[in-house]
Predict the 3D structure of the following.
Amino acid sequence: MEIRLDEGFLFGLGTFETIAVEDGKPLLLDRHLKRLEEAAQFLKLGSCTGRGLTKEKVETYLGEQDAAVTAHGALKIVMSEKNFFFQMRSNPYTEEIYSRGFMMDISKVRRNETSPLVYHKTLNYGDCILEKRAAAAAGINEKIFVNTKGQISEGTVSNIFFVRKNMIYTPQLSCGLLPGILRRYVMERFSVVETIVYPDELMYYDECFVTNSLMGVMPVRQLGNICFPHRKKTDEVREIYESEKMSL
């Protein structure tokens, strides 16, 4: 693979998508390509179709990959001004992880809700990668960012949801977060209230879960010093998504 120097390589002005692949099928592909197109337009990288990135090209690429990887895999699409490529790897999320649920903590790094880069999936991903590594080094699964106002925004690689009295809540987009593909699915499929949540309010919620395209819907058993022993609504959301995902 030849990588050409451009502002994506030098300054992070590029975009990417990570797509779950199950039994060779890229899940929610149309939604991922739409979001990639929006980011490409924002960064002035040219249109996806104009650069040859089509649904058919993705499907052809997957058909050429090892079936053992595409059975439960992750397809990454990267685009910058002069570069465009695919990468394929295994999906790391297993039933054992879902059964245990995530252990998480609040990051000391603040999410900058005033930056337009926060709202697109760009190659400016350093905070997320470093904090994800810090989480792993601390023996936990994920860290959650708060913004400059002290409001919960999102995880290093996930969107976050809370449940109280069977109602689902999630941080408002203005809190500084990427509008995830699974976040949108949950909001379309269920009644969800977008709100502002502060860390000292976590004790008032019964359940917590996080989402992204690879993990789907992941139960959270602890965030900081707050435990979430229940997952009734979380399990309902996950079961419905798992039953529908191959047809979305």
Summary: The longest strand covers residues 102-111. The mean pLDDT is 97.
